Amino acid sequence: MPKLDLVIEELVTANRILAREEVVDSFGHVSVRHPDRPDRYLLSRARAPDCIEAEDIMEFTLEGDPIDARDRKPYLERYIHGALYEARPDVQAVVHNHSPSVIPFGVTGSKLKPLLHMCASIGHDVPLWDSQDRFGDTTLLVENMEMGRDLAKRVGPGRTALMRGHGAVAVGQTLRQAVFIAIYLEVGAKLQMQASTLGSIKFLTDAEVEKIINRTGPYTIDRAWENWCRRAGRKMTASA
Ligand SMILES: [Zn+2]
């Protein structure tokens, strides 16, 4: 199979996994940088992730212009993806989601931090982006590059950010890694809420986070990926 087709199949799988693991529902999306054109990315047409097929995958410039839209309607919030690829040459995949457990941390000032070794991948610090700081009263949706770039600035060199009253983003150096981080961001948020009702939390130290991140490679991620593929009813392919 040509490289591009493999990447598209992997992106369909990523959509189905995120849906199955309840990181996305009818909304939310995942993209991957184009394997041959770093100035472009691949993202589905506006459709619920669990319904996405290979023919839904569209190609965009980093500015968010579709290359060959035909009659396919893109996601309004595609600017999140382009702005992150523009700001971060190391980033190969982006997830944007509204998973339920991350939302409370975006609106209370309670800081989301890793407390479980599997959640170290979310990074030491999960910054919060509040669209109101710069853009005032909006629909909270990232509907242009200016907002996308402001969000990307908040992500900085990190792996995740929360978006006040809206959701979160996760970025990865591979598609599998971005999905892994988005899933464990939701897991970590849920656990932190549960743990906080029991008492004060001992979070992972920065050094622990660093050590765990350094050893979370394909050995770990592919093991999860195989399991998630099976749960989502998708075949695991050799890494695209
Ligand atoms: Zn959104």
Structural description of this entry:
The chain is of the alpha+beta class and 240 residues long. The chain has helices at 3-20, 79-87, 103-108, 131-135, 145-155, 175-196, 206-214, 218-232, and strands spanning 29-33, 40-44, 57-61, 93-97, 128-129, 160-163, 167-172. It has a 7-stranded mixed β-sheet with strand order 3-2-1-4-7-6-5, with helices on both faces. The longest helix has 22 residues, at 175-196. The protein is globular, with a radius of gyration of 17 Å. The termini are close together. The model has no long low-confidence stretch (mean pLDDT 97). The site of zinc ion has 5 residues, from loops.
Task: State the helix count.
Answer: 8
Work out the strand percent. 5-15%
Low-confidence stretches: none
Mean pLDDT: 97
Count the beta strands.
7
- The dominant shape is globular
The largest beta-sheet arranges its strands as 3-2-1-4-7-6-5
Helix content: 25-40%
* Series of secondary-structure elements, N-terminal to C-terminal: HEEEHEHEHHEEHHH
Small ligands present = zinc ion
The largest sheet is: 7 strands, mixed
Structural class: alpha+beta
The radius of gyration is: 17 Å
Distance between the termini: 10 Å
Question: What does the secondary structure layout of this molecule look like, with pairings?
Answer:
Elements lengths: L2 H18 L8 E5 L6 E5 L12 E5 L17 H9 L5 E5 L5 H6 L19 E2 L1 H5 L9 H11 L4 E4 L3 E6 L2 H22 L9 H9 L3 H15 L8
Parallel strand pairs: 5-6
Antiparallel strand pairs: 1-2, 1-4, 2-3, 4-7, 6-7
Helix pairs in contact: 1-6, 1-8, 2-5
The chain binds zinc ion.
